[in-house]
Amino acid sequence: MDEEEINLMDYIKVILKRKWLILKIIVGAIIVVGILSLVMPKYKVDTILEVGVTEDTLEAPNQLVEKLKNGNYNEAIKTKLNIKKLPKIGVSNPKDTKLIIISITSSNPEQAKKILEELENLILKEHQEKFDIQKKILLDNKKRIKNKISSLENEKKILEEKVDYFTNLMATRPSPTYQFLLTEAKENLEKKKLEIENQYLQLNVLEQKLNSYQATRIIKAPAIPASPTEPGIGVKMTVGLILGLLGGIFLAFVIEWWEKEKKQSQLEHQ
Questions:
Q1: Of 96, 136, 89, 134, which Cα lies nearest the Cα of 115?
Q2: Which residues contact 153 (CB under 8 A, 6 or more apart)?
Q3: Inter-residue contact 116 to 46 (CB < 8 Å)
Q4: Dihedral pair phi/psi, residue 44, rounded to 5°
Q5: pLDDT tens for residues 5-58?
Q6: Angle CA(264)–CA(266)–CA(269) in degrees, nearest 5?
Q7: What are phi and psi of 111, to 5 degrees?
Q8: CA triplet 18, 23, 28: central angle to 5 degrees?
Q9: Percentages of the chain per state (helix, strand, coil), in multiples of 5
Q10: CA pair distance 183, 169, nearest whole angstrom
Q11: Which residues pair with residue 116 across a beta bridge?
Q12: Residue 52 and residue 133 in contact, taking contact as beta carbons nearer than 8 Å
């Protein structure tokens, strides 16, 4: 216990002996942190995309997140913007949404903004190509169904005329043959009406799908924030104070050890 108290007193004596050195290092650390905060402030630039919706889905949000984390678009961005190294790009997908939040924290907000804009362009172009292909398939099917309905309507009109013709014949010259032909024409007319109705149902389904389609879009475009987004100056000064204190104490003990070793070496040579 006494030995521990002696060691503790030795530590305190070293700290008191080198108090001005420790104080200088603390002040220096605070000044350096303050200057760095003013000279190199960090800005957070972000953008929000909403993944489009189609029958087959353009791309699952979690798949896009993985692609962004794996840097699938990085080389294309570096080539387009002539950048050797990209800053770290953060990406997230809020639960149960199709939103993708992409952000960059950098001391160069203008560059960060350009990177996010180019990234948006690449994603939108990729998704738009898929969107156009899927939409074209639906539009082609819609056109085919409309043509089919037009053809069926013409056939229906012919059958209606046929029913009217045999109905008139039965009124003036009834016969089993005319009755058979009239019944057959009516049956074919009803089938044709059902066929047309079925085509309209298919057309309605296609219309609903087309109305539900939505291309990938930008919800929030990247913009340079008005002020830095890092912790406040008070937090930074506190960090500088702690680092300076620890560094000063460490240096004080290193110097004390060095001086003892030097004295010991001198005594040995005497």
A1: 89
A2: 196
A3: yes
A4: -105, 115
A5: 446 676 777 777 777 877 877 777 777 766 666 555 678 899 999 999 887 667
A6: 110
A7: -65, -40
A8: 130
A9: 70, 10, 20
A10: 13
A11: none
A12: no
